[in-house]
Automatic annotation (TrEMBL):
Domain Methyltransferase: residue ranges: 60-161
A single GO BP: methylation
Keyword annotations: Methyltransferase, Signal, Transferase
GO molecular function: methyltransferase activity
Matches recorded under PANTHER family: METHYLTRANSFERASE
Signal peptide bounds: 1-20
InterPro entries: Methyltransf_25, Methyltransf_Superfamily, SAM-dependent_MTases_sf
Protein name per Swiss-Prot or TrEMBL: Putative Trans-aconitate 2-methyltransferase
Length: 310
């Protein structure tokens, strides 16, 4: 019955368009992000970046750049020539990114770097057609409508241009998410906004998003990383200070946030007693793709201009 009440509560919130905003969580995590998330998951991000070629002179767009972990890697690979246009919705995260990037761009007049605060959907809609060689979306496509965003990415890419998506999988932090769902099921009034995320089941799901958007899939794989937290308190600290719990602050009834955390921690402690271990995995997907190059005209076929078509 409790889950039925939770479903009714969620439906009511959806009808009222009460959606949680993850920005506050990322702002709060910005000073700790490179201490918690980047050392654990940053290596997977960098490895994913190695799967798309970057050459000096390229124009790169990065959506949801966060603290600039991948932005810095992109800049290094451009080797002083090219352009980077990056955006993030969290002012706190972007402040960290600006400091990181400033040291890398000093004395490089051939490299243009622009970091903007804003929504990635609006940002990419404002970019010209065929203006980028690579678009990177790290840990953020879940916050938008994936196929629609990928279609915009396809518009912005030059023919043959590449796209990289790395994203958390729907089964990540499973024990934690199940514990949180139980807390809300026991008391639906604790939930005041819905956390809307389109987390994929696996890499094949993201590959289908690419195909629907008209992009060619060039690579896809699933991965997993055990987070370095093995006690209930450490798990909760990691997900909050790494940004993995983005949306929580505005999804929970104001003033009862600690109550929810205490109940989730108690649930994790019970799980630890039953299993003897608490292993939380951050599962993820990496998918790369490209904008198809228009097929060459068949031999003997006339172009529109040659045929007198204006």
């Amino acid at each position: 019955m409790s889950r039925v009440r939770l479903a009714v509560r969620a439906l009511r919130l959806a009808l009222n368009r009460a959606h949680a905003d993850p920005t506050a969580d990322y702002d709060a995590a910005s000073s700790d992000y490179d201490t918690f998330f980047s050392p654990v998951m940053g290596g997977h991000s960098t490895a994913a970046l190695a799967e798309v070629p970057i050459a000096p002179g390229d124009s790169v767009v990065e959506l949801a750049c966060g603290t600039g972990h991948l932005t810095a890697e992109i800049i290094r690979r451009l080797d002083g020539r090219g352009a980077v246009r990056a955006v993030d919705k969290s002012p706190g995260m972007l402040d960290v990114a600006r400091e990181k990037v400033r040291a890398l761009t000093a004395g490089t007049p051939g490299l243009g770097v622009e970091l903007s605060v804003g929504d990635m959907d609006s940002f990419i809609r404002g970019l010209p057609d065929r203006s980028a060689d690579l678009v990177v979306v790290g840990w953020a496509i879940c916050y938008t409508k994936p196929t629609r965003l990928l279609a915009e990415i396809g518009r912005v890419l030059r023919p043959g241009g590449r796209v990289l998506v790395i994203e958390t999988r729907a089964d990540a932090h499973q024990a934690l998410t199940e514990g949180l769902e139980k807390v809300f099921a026991d008391d639906p009034s604790l939930l005041t906004s819905l956390i809307r995320v389109a987390l994929p089941k696996n890499a094949a799901t993201v590959a289908r998003w690419f195909t629907k958007a008209g992009l060619t899939v060039t690579g896809q794989r699933d991965g997993a990383q055990v987070i370095p937290a093995h006690t209930p308190a450490a798990v909760l600290e990691w997900v909050q200070r790494s940004g993995a719990a983005a949306g929580f602050k505005t999804a929970v009834d104001n003033g009862r946030e600690q109550l929810v955390l205490d109940r989730v921690e108690a649930g994790l402690a019970e799980l630890l007693r039953k299993k003897g271990t608490l292993e939380i995995q951050h599962t993820f997907v990496v998918v790369t793709g490209a904008k198809p190059v228009a097929p060459r005209a068949r031999h003997g076929a006339r172009t529109g201009e040659e045929a007198g078509v204006a």
